[in-house]
Amino acid sequence: xxxxxxxxxxxxxxxxxxxxxxxxxxxxxxxxxxxxxxxxxxxxxxxxxxxxxxxxxxxxxxxxxxxxxxxxxxxxxxxxxxxxxxxxxxxxxxxxxxxxxxxxxxxxxxxxxxxxxxxxxxxxxxxxxxxxxxxxxxxxxxxxxxxxxxxxxxxxxxxxxxxxxxxxxxxxxxxxxxxxxxxxxxxxxxxxxxxxxxxxxxxxxxxxx
Length: 209
Ligand code: ADP
Ligand code: ADP
Ligand code: ZN
What we know:
Bound molecules: adenosine-5'-diphosphate, zinc ion
Largest sheet: 5 strands, parallel
CATH class: Alpha Beta
């Protein structure tokens, strides 16, 4: 069993790509951001603690994230590996992950900082099925979402103010992971500043290496 990591700045397209390649890989998407938002909504102790960090655009403490992943990876659907989206985001998280499960590929979706604000501020999703859309770059079709029941949902942290701190957190705490994984020979860079389908093709190619 072996897992995949989708790596990149906020708004790079990790969730979008995870959605698209999950049928090809057969691996379930595990998004720590989605898990945290669910915990916040349910007001669990984890959610209550995580909320202020998320609203401020800061990373949630490693211990909380590692506990979430440890529990998630025990579920039956994770036994053949998973596709991590937005995890790991720090070196301690990557070290903990190495103890929990094997990672075969880390796919870095590269997008320049100046594109990120537009990506994040135009993002919305379907509140019914979770599909991710964009006002300009990937709008929901006139006939609505594929799930048949479109409800527009925006994230509380998708605004100009938090984007700055989220990008700083990425450059300071997350981007050092690129070298960490590169040294292990499993790091693959993909140009994320292109058409969504071309990026998916490149990711599927990289996964064959
Ligand atoms: P984005 O789409 O901007 O990359 P995510 O949904 O992955 O956002 O994460 C939203 C927020 O949840 C982050 O800004 C951070 O506060 C928290 N978060 C998600 N994953 C992690 C993680 N692996 N480590 C620490 N904080 C995390
Ligand atoms: P992440 O999970 O990395 O935070 P998302 O997949 O949520 O990123 O994408 C962020 C926003 O950018 C969404 O609104 C999405 O529709 C849009 N998006 C994703 N990929 C592309 C792309 N290649 N070109 C333009 N917009 C994109
Ligand atoms: Zn939907």
